[in-house]
């Protein structure tokens, strides 16, 4: 279930499930899952999970790229929650997203704290295409977005830089400004076009260069206005109800 109702709020899950067989960045270590304790054998269940800090839906801290950069715990909890907007880039003409692709959204970015890039690439999660020619920002586009007062930026793809990049210019453009990066988001097609609250809480790790995170979008439920009945219609409805009771 990707969406739930909590009072007047709609909570949309933007995270992939941590599970055996989940994708991981090629060249890094695969997650390992085991069940050392089970209810049948021990009376309780516990799993053992070994995974890198940048696996699944996760957040990058500046310390991921810069030796002297802040870690996640140094940024603090308020850095992980704020007003957000999702940019629909599913119709961008090529794998590289340039400034011209972002300019139509300029008015939406004012006073936002998070920008989520909806490229549609999460549909490839779980198959080899997820790692091939995924959409990325050009360095110029990254620098343009970094000019806004953002806490973070997220994307529904494996990385912000091309697979074979070693310079990582997009990572550097954001992380040098303490703008955290959230990679491997999911379900961005389910968030509203209007502003919502983005909450992405990474695990509280010591010296966290990054961490798996649970990302959600929070937005108010739009209530339908009930139609006002005229006195004549109210009278007719009461008469009809009385007749049915007889």
Protein model, in words:
By secondary structure, the chain is an alpha/beta fold. The protein has one domain (3-16, 53-220): Putative cyclase (Glucose Oxidase, domain 1), CATH 3.50.30. The protein is built from seven helices and 13 strands. Strands 5-11-10-8-6-12-13 form a seven-stranded mixed β-barrel. A two-stranded antiparallel ribbon has the order 3-4. Helix 5 (139-146) runs parallel beside helix 6. The longest helix has 15 residues, at 231-245. It starts with a strand and ends with a helix. Residues 225-230 have low confidence and may be disordered.
Sheet with most strands:
7 strands, mixed, barrel
Q: Label the structural class.
A: alpha/beta
CATH class: Alpha Beta
Instruction: Give the overall average pLDDT.
Output: 90
Percent of sequence in beta strands: 25-35%
Q: What radius of gyration results from the CA coordinates?
A: 23 Å
Count of discrete alpha- or pi-helical segments spanning 4 or more residues: 7
The H/E string reads EEEHEEHEEHHEEHEHEEEH
Q: Any idea how many domains?
A: 1
Distance between the termini: 45 Å
CATH architecture: 3-Layer(bba) Sandwich
Shape: globular
Q: Give the neighbour order of strands across the main sheet.
A: 5-11-10-8-6-12-13
| Low-confidence blocks of residues | 225-230
- Helicity level, as a percent range? 10-25%
